[in-house]
Structure formats: structure tokens, C-alpha cells
Prior knowledge:
The protein is of the alpha+beta class. 50% of the residues lie in helices and 12% in strands. A hairpin with a 5-residue loop joins strand 9 and strand 10. Helix 4 packs antiparallel against helix 5. The longest helix is centred in the N-terminal third of the chain and has 42 residues. The termini are far apart.
Amino acid sequence: MLIRDRLPAYISWDRFQANQERLAANRARKEWPGASRQGHSLLAGLLRCGRCGRRMIVLYSGLKDLHSYTCTRGPTGTGEPLCQSLPGPVLDELIAGRVLAAVEPAALEASLAAMAGVERERAELAGHWRLRRERADQEVDRAARQYQACEPENRLVGRELERRWEESLKGRRRLEEEYERWRRAAPGRLTPEDERAIRSLVCDLPAVWRSATTTQAERQRIARLLVERVSVVVDKSSERVDVELHWAGGPVESHTLSRPVRRYDLLSGYSQMVERLRAWCAEGRSTAEIADRLNAEGFRPAKRADRFNGGMTQRLLCRLGLIHRRPHGSRSGLGDDEYRPGGLSQRLGIGRDTIRRWLRAGWLTSRLDAEGHHVIWADSSELSRLRELHALPRTWANEGRLAELCRPNPRPER
Length: 414
């Protein structure tokens, strides 16, 4: 049987209850989010599966520790199929933006209140120290007066009063030392420059949030102060994710975001994109031009890339059968005495990396075809120059000849 307030306790009952609630919250049970962790995720412990209601766990993978949220309670507990999963950064970015938007209107008032609180706390502590120092001075003064009023004949009383006087002096000295230590360690008064710095930080909360000095555990604690839980439902047939944000206190927000998917046919605008690709291929557009048009019209790749490029567009067109990739080493589209880097490498019997290095150095006469690939011109004399360039030893004695061989021969005009 528990009998409260029967014996003196080390801590109060309210403090004990608060400690028990904190311990229960750190156990990461079903109804508690658990303690803040050091991982890259923002919603660890706060995210719930919108299909089954279970808590979604955080999984890390790859060299960059990219995290994802996965509902694995069914497969691990009862052998059910995997419920749903989604990449973590896209969801964290949405929730972080909503948290920053929620605190932005009150940020300036909070900073001013904090500055006023610092000044008020300093004034209260200074008053407390002033009273302690005055009390110590009074005790020293009283002990001195008592000793001075003692008759010389009363030696025992005089020695006791002298001892009390010395103790009061030592106590005042210790108090002064403690006061000096507090004065050096206490926060100083905010100067106008400090106030301007604080106001500038308040006006740029995203920069403070993303600062290297802000730890992920601190971001998680901020999110947990404002967010009760987040529920997601992933549409497995598209990139759509429905998000419900439950704020602390009851308000609920609904959002929709796009997640990275593995296949283009999972994109909601896939059929429209295919129609546009067919039309541009019929117009004879190059892959680089098609990539620019895809980006301009708002289409995005299926995976984590933000924009289309020429190589990505070429692979997509080949997969759709709109263009056919030339076989490796094909001479289609080449004129007389023209080679691709691989063909020239085979003709000269040297490594392909050497050909690429000569291209970067400008030692070859080349052009770009319609797809942006290098086409190298080399007649018989040019082939002889390249063979000699490759075989010539790199010594000081051959420096002049090497400089001559590095200059490519101009292509004759037709």
C-alpha cells in the first residue's frame, strides 16, 4: 500500500509522476513516440501507417544513409504482405516546412519575450546576490562590534568572539569569490548589436533549422512539441502520397506529395508524357532538345533526379521503341575517315581512355553528332601522327617534337 506524504521524500510527488511519464515516453511503446534519436529522420516515432494504423519504422541504406519509412509490423509479426513504404526525405521536407510556417508568426514575439526574460532573470539574481552580500557585511560588522565591546579580563569570551569574527570574515570572502564567479559566468546584457543579430535569425528560421550547429535530435524535439502524429497512405499505382498532419491540440491538415518511384509508368502524367515524346520524335528533335522540353513542361524523372538530361531521355525513348540505339562501334552516320572513340581505339590499338584524354586535351579533330557524341576525323597522315604521339617517350629531349605532335591536323574542306 502506498501512503503518500507520510515520510520526507527526495523529490515531490509531481516530480516523480513527471519522471515516470518521461520514462514511459522513452520506451517507444505503441502509444508513445519514444526518445529522440540521432538519425537523419525527422518523424521517427511520430509516423503512422494510414492503412493499418501501426507505427512505421525507419530504415537506412546506402553509403549516404538515405532513410525510408516502412510499415513492417505485418510481415514481421503475422507474415502479412508489406503494407507500404516511402522515401523519408520527401516527407520530412513537407513536415519541416509546415512546422517552420507554424512558428514563424510568433517567432519575433518569442524572441522579444526571451530577451526580456534574460534581463529579468539577471536582475532577480543580482538582487539576490546583493541581499546575501549585505547580510554577510552585517554579520561581520556585528561580530566586530561584539569583540570590541568585550572586556579584556574575559579572555574565554574574547577568544570565542574573535573566532566568530574570523569565521564571518571567511564566510564573506567565500561569498565574494562565489559572486565574482557568477558575475563572470552570468549572461551579459544584450547590446543593440545582439538584438539585431537575434532579429535577423528570427527572420530566417529556415537557415537556423538547416544550420550545421542544429542537431537532428533538436529538430525532432521541436517537431514533437508541435506535432502529435503524422499519418500517410501511399498510392502504390502512382507517385501520390496522402498525408494527414495532426497538430498538438487537435487541428488536422491534409496534404498530397509526390514520391520517387522506380518506373515511369507509375507516374500520374505518364500517358501524357508518352504522347509528347512521340510528337517530338516525329518532328526530328534531338534527345537534348527533348530533355529541355520535358523539363520546361514540368515533367520529372521517375527516380530521385530533379531534371531530365540527354542520356536519360535517350534511354527512355529506346525503352518506348521511339528510337533504336546504334550497336556498339556502329559506323552509321560517319563519313570518310571518321571514327567514334571506340573505333579509333581499335584502329590504333591503344586504350579508349587515352582517346578520351586526347579529346579533352584538344589533340584530336572532332565534331559532335546530333545526339551530342564525339565523331573523330583521322586520315592516314593523322593516324600516323597519333601512332607516333602514343609511342614517343615523354622526355625533355623530345619536348619539341611532342609539342608538334600535339597539334591536330586541320580537316580538309570539301
